Amino acid sequence: MPLFKTVLYSTDFSPLAETALEYVKKLKEAGAKKVIVTHVVTSLSIELPEGTDLMNSEILSNVLPKADQLYVTSIIEKLDRIKKNLEFNELEVEIALRYGTPGDEIVNVAKEKGASVIVMGAHGKGLLTEILLGSVSVDVMRKAECPVLIIKKREE
Amino acid sequence: MLFEKILYPIDFEKHSLEAKPYVLKLKEAGCKEVHILHVLLPSEWGLLPKEEYDSIEKVEGLKSALSEGYSDALIKRFKEMEELAKEFEENGIKTKVVMIPGELDEVISNYADKYGVKLVTLGINAASLSIFRVGKIMDVLKATKQPILIVKSESEE
Q: Which 3 state secondary structure label does DSSP give B7?
């Protein structure tokens, strides 16, 4: 049964996201074949439509100001390193880099790509913050149509 | 090691059982042991002695603390949990079946810590994550330190 076939791995490049990556690799043994490495950019010097694909070279070269180009390029480099890491583990990898609201965009990418499961870290903000603002992980859990594997921040 | 020991809390509703195929599948990623836990909520069962009821004998021992209908219902549930455990055992996964009185978040997080659980798998109803329902599942998500796999079902409660 292809329960874990396509994994959406959401990263903010934090150490917790690195921990979550280990779970993604492990899911290969439970049938994972493809990983969508996803990052959502929330702030640029110009406003773009929600969900803009920042892997689109046209947008990168012709729409974004120079400073944003450099910033987005540095993110693409980080995503490429994760891609190579996963490919080394014999997983097929696609990168999704979007502009917008992280919770919404992670769920949108999951739907578009037919993700079987979303894997992400949860930093765990205060109760009140979560209720009022909704942390990204809670937002994803609420809106995702597929299972979500949340890696919690361990309090050492 | 990441999925070696899984805690699988169930409430006997359809949605909690929908997580089962995922737990079974994780055997291929190293799951060796599954603990099937049913939390006996005070709102449902009253205040019961706080113990781990992990055998039919122990559950039967609760007869004195419960009225007859309740006690029979509890025994029936334990047997259903044992049936569920058989499916895992048949797939080569070691199991433990246990009922514990208390609040959902407290019991699940304490149990996961005590037994070195690597992953908590929750099969839940989508409505239980609603922004209007702050309690229960959200409390479990906050209280549990271990990774959590949420398998959401859209079915009616």
A: strand
